[in-house]
Amino acid sequence: MSEQSSPPGGVLVVGSANLDLVATTARHPSPGETLIGHDYSEHPGGKGLNQAVAAARAGSPTRFVGAVGRDDAGQTLTRVAAESGVDTSEIADVDASTGRALILVAESGENSIVVVPGANELCPVGTARDGEVVLAQLEVPLNTVESTFRTAREVGATTVLNPAPARPLPPELLELVDIIVPNEHELDLLGGVSSLLEKGVGTVVVTLGAEGARVHTRDGAVDIPTLSVDAVDTTGAGDTFCGYLASGLASGLPLENAARRGCLAAALSTTRSGAVPSIPTSAEVGGVSAF
Ligand code: ADP
Q1: Domain range list for the chain
Q2: pTM for this one?
């Protein structure tokens, strides 16, 4: 093992980091119209960053490969990841603006969102190490994900893809995926479980919101229950599930147990507001599973 190797059991997350800018207004403006808003906040986000924080809070040594601009937002996102214990040394500082999501929340509760990927378009390829679980999503270029998974296959690392936001995927990418983790909407767009298994994906773990998750292999399906909670904000629930699933697998848990832990952590995350602030620590998840 070279000096740079991480301990076995680590997670490598390759994906996006965004700053979410959230403004609240009475209603959505018409084209050309200016409205006065009454609330504004900024939150760290991006599926890659959220999932890296989840894997680190779950207790795994976690490396995050992503890209931010040379701006304040980039520094903020890197600091947030580091404060959760994520290894941020492979976040690239690139010549583009840090990714932003501009979110307008009307009093009706309806959101309109503009995502500007910026630096995320320049996300570098991750180099997997033996024994790692490699986790990616679709907010960075598909080529980056595919090349990362190729390096993972070369060293025998496990590849996990959260195909969000939903988009069709080429067969060359799907055949590099050991475990795919779609929600029901993403699963529909990808043609269903059988189609994914036929295309070479090893296991399909479908997240089902308040119904938990279902693990599908060629041998059949197993239902994974989740906690019954009073959900106040489901933002980041899927990301929490993915980070905890990857961490569980990296630490040697069987897939079903890792998915159970993912469900517990994700359910807890829905009882709190926001994405990053709502992701529980392993101590919180352990406390719940003891009941
Ligand atoms: P996404 O947020 O990506 O659409 P889901 O809605 O399927 O994904 O949620 C991911 C996971 O979060 C679920 O598998 C479940 O464990 C947990 N979860 C989400 N909503 C609830 C809820 N209302 N009650 C309990 N657990 C939930």
Answers
A1: 11-17+46-98+119-286
A2: 0.94
CB distance 113 to 102 below 8 Å: yes
- Residue whose token pair is 């006065």: 36
Q: Quote the CA–CA distance of 226 and 190 in Å, as a whole number.
A: 24
Give dist(CA 135, CA 242) in Å, integer.
8
Has residue 8 got a pLDDT over 60? no
The atom of ligand 1 lying closest to the CA of 237 is 12
pLDDT at 274 over 60: yes
Nearest CA to ligand 1 atom 2: 238
pLDDT at 289: 57
pLDDT band at 1 (very low <50, low <70, confident <90, very high): very low
**Class at the top of the CATH hierarchy for domain 11-17+46-98+119-286:** alpha beta
> Ligand 1 test: best mutation among 180, 241, 272, 279, most atoms within 8 Å of CB?
241
Distance CA 53, CA 49 (A): 6
Strands in the chain per DSSP E: 11-14, 18-25, 39-45, 62-65, 67-69, 92-94, 99-106, 111-116, 133-136, 158-161, 179-180, 203-207, 213-217, 220-224
pLDDT digits (tens, 9 = 90+) for 262-271: 999 999 999 9
Query: Distance between CA atoms of 13 and 244, rounded to whole angstroms?
Result: 12
213 close to ligand 1 (CB < 6 Angstrom): yes
Is 239 an annotated catalytic residue? yes
Beta-carbon neighbour count of residue 190 at 10 Å?
A: 21
